[in-house]
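Researcher:
Attend to token order:
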Amino acid sequence: MAAQISFPNNPSDGDEFLASNGTTYQYDSDTGQWKIKAGPGVQGPPGPPLASGENINVGIVTFTTLLGGEFGRYSEKVNALGNTGISTNIDVEDGTFVTATVNANCTFTFTSPTSGTLYGFGLLLTNDSSGPHSITWPTSVNWPGGSIPSRTEDDTKADLWSFFTTDGGTNWYGSIALYNFS
């Protein structure tokens, strides 16, 4: 379970707050926000500003309330799986954008989501040049209209799929977002 940080109310400019996870936040009175200054795993410029008196969960970072905040230099981790083989597991902790090449009839599994939290990922699936190959999706995936969408089966073409869950993976919601890319 992620730890929760409660920021002090009524801070003064330059006040620093050391959270129990070792991250130091500094208050900026010009913006009225807390900013990440230093801590474990902090790289690059200071993180997004946080409103005074608000909470964040540390671990999987979720904001209880973000008022007047702005994300800058935001990026998502790419999980490049390479060839799928006959079975491939997608672990949502390894990245929210997944790439893979279908090089055999493949059965997919999805792991690691936490119940009560929205998890989603995009999956860019490219066909190799020896297909077509079949795909078997987890039985926990719910599809629009109850049917798995048709996918591109042409050699070296790709489709972009999207998947979401809020209940720890008991139910996934899947769709084909973009179809038939070169």
Summary: Residues 41-47, 51-66 have pLDDT under 50 and may be disordered. The chain is about 0% helix and 45% strand. Residues 132 and 153 are 5 Å apart (CA to CA). The chain has two domains: 3-63, 78-181.
